[in-house]
């Protein structure tokens, strides 16, 4: 059945005047900006993006081939919204929240066919509702009225919608309900169901933003150790093709200690998303041992899917993230890649014949990016609680040139910058995050967390590593001119220590069972072990031992096996002992 038959037309139908790819112009349509409309005989879903006199311009979320002038356009009178409620976790959606598995069953194809409508959440499924309010209680917008077990991992908090007035509870009952049934009634006549709609282009209300003080632990040494992201923070991963953007994003989705993960596959190749869709349902959640999908919502709009839905998938994703934030959860959102989103904006803007800005991107590119990242943060909630959204966007600059507009505009906004580097990737140094170019503005505010949860001297040990890597960077220039052997012995030793920092600590193999995840304690211990080597080695050097002999102690190369060591505590103890013994035996 087509959508056009499904919906009640609230206004007079319009008539298609012209079709240009995803952009359709209609005449005589009574519409407001951002209204959702159904276009053509097949009822393809679209959104009003421009109104000029009698002409309405619509971006259509489905392929428009074969759609032509004279066909009708119906207005729903509603803005593009997501349906928020239990059942979103463990789901895979397209850019306008149509579930891909449901659609697949209906259409027998992996991706969407045209004019198919499917609700974002299951309207028939019954959920076991446990009230947390009783009759006579007063509730306000955002307050939790009860809980359903959405998945084995996550309790879904049913909240008074933010646009309600609130009041006294006159009726509430526990039991099995669908998301559309009323579970709580208020004295002012308001009825609360387990689902609520929210327009995707409007941030859900929240209180003040707070300064984030907890890291989003990624389990990746270079990220946690040198360039940490806060829970509620923003990060960008720019890098050329093949440098590791997708692997990095997927590592975050798998290992980061967020309660909820929203993963947006935006405009990248279809097979990458297929991998995610096939992989993720098999993977366990390292925090709970439950399936990873029990805390994950996937949104897929791959390069073979319609371009306008790519523009919307970012908004669909962030709105879903806000809804779980409102429950008090720490949500992490990954978007791979924001460049494809920007390109979708560019394509639509050029079809509208808008005045182009830099490199053909619309003049509002910077504003769109900053509005998106603005929706990240650690928030006080309207119900008095706290919740956070961390946002990590991959950026794919053409040719890996970071001076292009999407990278530059993103850098002005985000506070953590993980710069992927083609040379490192080529040398198979993974993650190929360039430690000279990357930065995190959260470092200082997260130190107290490390000091109390990991080790009190963490800031000093990390600073030591940063200094050694900086020194290596400077020495490299000389080495290139005159060779390593021309350096004084202490500088040669510094290079040796830096090599272990790079190979044993910064490198981490996402494809290795053990090395793929490194808890903060292990990140610290590994670094400490390299520092032990350094301290002992410099003592030996001072006592007159030649640098060649120091480099040759057989405990040193074992540093490179710390990452993959399963019993790492014992393994590192042993290396530290042996290093001490062997280096002291030299003098
Ligand atoms: N952390 C990592 N550990 C091991 N291999 C990696 C890592 N990051 C990237 N790679 C390798 O690089 C390849 C390309 O990475 P990918 O994330 O697909 O790049 P991009 O998304 O930037 O095009 C991967 O298939 C993998 O072989
Ligand atoms: Mg990729």
Put the structure in a nutshell.
This protein is of the alpha+beta class and 587 residues long.
Give your account of this protein's structure.
The protein has 587 residues and is of the alpha+beta class. It folds into four domains: 77 residues, Elongation Factor Tu (Ef-tu), domain 3 (Beta Barrel); 68 residues, RNA polymerase II/Efflux pump adaptor protein, barrel-sandwich hybrid domain (OB fold (Dihydrolipoamide Acetyltransferase, E2P), Beta Barrel); 232 residues, Rossmann fold; 127 residues, Bovine Mitochondrial F1-atpase, Atp Synthase Beta Chain, Chain D, domain 3 (Bovine Mitochondrial F1-ATPase, ATP Synthase Beta Chain, Chain D, domain3, Orthogonal Bundle). Strands 8, 18, 19, 20, 21, 22, 23, 24, 25 and 26 form a ten-stranded mixed beta sheet that branches. Helix 6 packs across helix 7, helix 12 crosses helix 14 and helix 13 packs antiparallel against helix 14. Adenosine-5'-diphosphate binds next to helix 4. Adenosine-5'-diphosphate (ADP) binds next to helix 4. Its EC number is 7.1.2.2.
């Amino acid at each position: 059945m087509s959508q056009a038959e499904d919906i009640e037309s609230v206004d007079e139908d319009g008539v298609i005047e012209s079709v240009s790819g995803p952009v359709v112009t209609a005449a005589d349509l009574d519409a407001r900006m951002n209204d959702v409309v159904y276009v053509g005989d097949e009822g393809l879903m679209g959104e009003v993006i421009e109104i000029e006199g009698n002409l309405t311009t619509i971006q259509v979320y489905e392929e428009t081939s074969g759609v032509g002038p004279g066909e009708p356009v119906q207005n729903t009178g509603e803005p593009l919204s997501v349906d928020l409620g239990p059942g979103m976790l463990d789901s895979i959606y397209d850019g306008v929240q149509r579930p891909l598995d449901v659609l697949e069953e209906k259409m027998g194809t992996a991706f969407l066919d045209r004019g198919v409508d499917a609700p974002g959440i299951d309207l028939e499924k019954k959920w076991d509702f446990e009230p947390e309010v009783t009759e006579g209680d007063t509730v306000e917008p955002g307050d939790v009225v009860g809980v359903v077990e959405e998945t084995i991992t996550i309790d879904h908090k049913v909240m008074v919608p933010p646009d309600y007035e609130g009041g006294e509870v006159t009726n509430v009952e526990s039991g099995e309900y669908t998301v559309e049934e009323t579970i709580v009634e208020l004295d002012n006549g308001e009825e609360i169901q387990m689902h609520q709609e929210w327009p995707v282009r409007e941030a859900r209300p929240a209180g003040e933003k707070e300064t984030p003080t907890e890291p989003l632990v990624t389990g990746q040494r270079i990220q946690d150790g040198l360039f940490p992201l806060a829970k509620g923070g923003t990060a960008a991963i720019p890098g050329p093709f093949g440098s590791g953007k997708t692997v990095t994003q997927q590592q975050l989705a798998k290992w980061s200690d967020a309660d909820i993960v929203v993963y947006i596959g935006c405009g990248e190749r279809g097979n990458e998303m297929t991998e995610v869709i096939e992989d993720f349902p098999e993977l366990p959640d390292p925090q709970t041992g439950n399936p990873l999908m029990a805390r994950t919502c996937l949104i897929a709009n791959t390069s073979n899917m319609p371009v306008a839905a790519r523009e919307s998938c970012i908004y669909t994703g962030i709105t879903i993230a806000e809804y779980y934030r409102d429950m008090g959860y720490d949500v992490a959102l990954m978007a791979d890649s924001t460049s494809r989103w920007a390109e979708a904006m560019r394509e639509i803007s050029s079809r509208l014949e808008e005045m182009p800005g830099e490199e053909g991107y619309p003049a509002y590119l910077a504003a769109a990016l900053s509005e998106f990242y603005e929706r990240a943060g650690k928030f006080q909630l309207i119900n008095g609680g706290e919740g956070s959204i961390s946002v990590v966007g991959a950026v794919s600059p053409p040719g890996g040139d970071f001076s292009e507009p999407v990278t530059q505009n993103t850098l002005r906004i985000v506070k953590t910058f993980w710069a992927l580097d083609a040379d490192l990737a080529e040398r198979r140094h993974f993650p190929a995050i360039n430690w000279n170019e990357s930065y995190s503005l959260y470092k200082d505010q997260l130190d107290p967390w490390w000091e109390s949860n990991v080790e009190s001297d963490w800031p000093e040990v990390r600073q030591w590593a940063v200094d050694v890597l900086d020194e290596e960077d400077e020495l490299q220039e000389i080495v290139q001119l005159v060779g390593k052997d021309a350096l004084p012995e202490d500088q040669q030793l510094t290079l040796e220590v830096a090599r272990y920092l790079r190979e044993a600590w910064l490198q981490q193999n996402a494809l290795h069972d053990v090395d793929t995840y490194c808890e903060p304690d292990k990140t610290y211990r590994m670094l400490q072990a390299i520092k032990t080597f350094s301290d002992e080695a410099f003592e030996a050097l001072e006592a007159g031992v030649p640098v060649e002999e120091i480099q040759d102690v057989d405990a040193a190369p074992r540093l490179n096996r710390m990452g993959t060591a399963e019993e790492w505590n014992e393994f590192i103890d042993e290396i530290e002992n042996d290093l001490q013994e062997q280096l002291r035996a030299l003098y």
